[in-house]
Amino acid sequence: MTAGTQPSEIRRITSPANAAVKEVRALHQKKYREQTGLFIAEGLRILSEAVDQGHRIETLVILPQMREHRVGRRLVQACLDGGGQVLEVTEAVLAKVARKENPQGAVGVFRQRWEGLSDIDARGDFCWAVLEAIRDPGNLGTILRTCDSIGAQGVILLDQSCDPYSLEGVRASMGSVFGQRLAHASFDDFMAWRRGQGGTMVGASLKGDVDYQKVRYERPTFVLMGNEQSGLPARYEAACDRLVRIPMRGRADSLNVAIAASLLLYEVYNQDRRRA
Amino acid sequence: MTAGTQPSEIRRITSPANAAVKEVRALHQKKYREQTGLFIAEGLRILSEAVDQGHRIETLVILPQMREHRVGRRLVQACLDGGGQVLEVTEAVLAKVARKENPQGAVGVFRQRWEGLSDIDARGDFCWAVLEAIRDPGNLGTILRTCDSIGAQGVILLDQSCDPYSLEGVRASMGSVFGQRLAHASFDDFMAWRRGQGGTMVGASLKGDVDYQKVRYERPTFVLMGNEQSGLPARYEAACDRLVRIPMRGRADSLNVAIAASLLLYEVYNQDRRRA
Question: What percent of chain B is predicted at pLDDT more than 70?
Fold first, then answer.
């Protein structure tokens, strides 16, 4: 394809200093993500899943050779159909955009989706993760991925959380950030909302008084996890219907938060599928 | 304490270009870790646990104010008693050594401990994780931490693995790298050894034909996990006594490898503690 036959919405760019490329790269900064409400995701497969789930690609940054592939062509078409812009770039430019030496063919810019708690009716739902002041986006993304794997509805972030839409979070989620619902709230607002939802709110704690496998989890289950360093504050623990402990017998005195969350989420799922 | 009353083994260093400091910093490189057989760990608590478990501190890099604390004093004493050197450094130097803005008071240099498979008799053991070509040291460290939490014996690394003694691996393990046993081997050497050990070798696979909760795990259990990208090679799957599947029902088509390993390791542990 020669430059003359390109649709006007596809631009060829070879300089990482190009203004459109710089706008995409700015989304590595949380401040700029907050200002714009946008974020970036990477890789043909994940971008393709995002499109399948109805997310519009605002900007697609892609290597020219990817447009010869079925998935690449489909992404370009989806982007253009949705009114987005396509930037065809060199590998060097894409590596800058993805902050990665061998980027997986394409980077897409998407709009963040946050819901207000007041718009969420969880009463018929299966399960939500509720995370207090989680700090590491890798942990958060991994929890989103596990939530997706068990068919949970989404994640509610309490207090000052890290950003699920950071590239590290999006990467760790392996695309689950597109399928899971997301809300953030203060603990008080969450508790006010939670009272109308029924089900079980279960907290994981080293001080838990019952084995996590000895509790019957009723739908909707709210799985509440504390921050990596300090766990759940006492007030949050007191608000739980059940405070469970994941047994340990080695020298380690705690589990990684994404591991603990996943063990608890899978117990909820395992009970639910046995009852189904 | 004035400079004149310091034991000769404690050196005060203010320059990150100091030769002893540079030697410690070189341990961030895998090549230098391999040459020396040394590695670094960080944080008073983790260093303290290492000492408790009989690991000798070859070099202790510490802030002067830490020597006023009980744990800091104990580490300095343990290091000197073991014939190691103590480097008292500024915060700026420690930050360089730890590659971290707010390092947790001290960094220690330790000797790696690898065992040959031929020296390991697993017949009375509870559980080992066996990881094929794992790539991410964060995942590896997290799996070591879970192994430690269930009282497993250790981790056997097959083929080309990332380094459990990288700082990222040590950090993710939260000190469990000091408590768990470590070996690496080719798959063929592992299988030759494994034939004499009894127990159950179970692989996790998306192609697994049985639910991970429907298998009875006999001691010693060898939990075999594949690489992040490609899972277990067919030949490895064929060698397993049981090939299990961790059920999923969402859109995600796989779990993070540390999550999958931990779910399986906890199932082995949960069965074991129910039988106890």
Answer: 97
Strand, coil or helix: B259: helix
Residues 200-239 of A with CB under 8 A from B: 213
Q: Which residue has the tokens 């509790």?
A: A215
Alpha helices, H only, chain B:
19-25, 30-36, 44-52, 70-81, 91-98, 137-150, 167-173, 176-179, 187-194, 234-239, 257-275
Q: Which helix (H) or strand (E) holds A168?
A: helix A167-173
Same-domain check for residues A95 and A122: no
Does residue B121 share a domain with residue B39?
no
Tell me how close the Cα of B8 comes to any Cα of chain A, in angstroms.
Answer: 35
Residue A166, chain B, CB below 8 Å: the answer is no
Query: How many separate domains does chain B show?
Result: 2
Same structural domain for residues A56 and A152?
no
Is residue B1 pLDDT above 60, yes or no?
no
Same domain, residue pair B140 and B265: yes
Measure in Å the smallest separation between the Cα of A250 and chain B Cα atoms: 4
Chain B residues with CB under 8 Å of A263 CB are: 262-263, 266
| Three-state SS at B130 | strand
Structural domain including A43 reads 3-111
CB contact under 8 A, A248 and B150: yes
- Tokens representing B60? 């202790």
Q: Which of A151, A259, A269 comes nearest B258 by C-beta?
A: A259
Calculate ∠ Cα A62-A66-A70, nearest 5°: 125
Quick: pLDDT tens for B168-217. Answer: 999 999 999 999 999 999 999 999 999 999 999 999 998 899 999 999 99
- Those residues of chain A that have pLDDT short of 50 are 1-6
Q: pTM value?
A: 0.94
Closest Cβ opposite residue B252 in set A149, A248, A254: A149
Instruction: Quote the CA–CA distance of A188 and A184 in Å, as a whole number.
Output: 12
Interchain CB distance below 8 Å, A270 and B213: yes
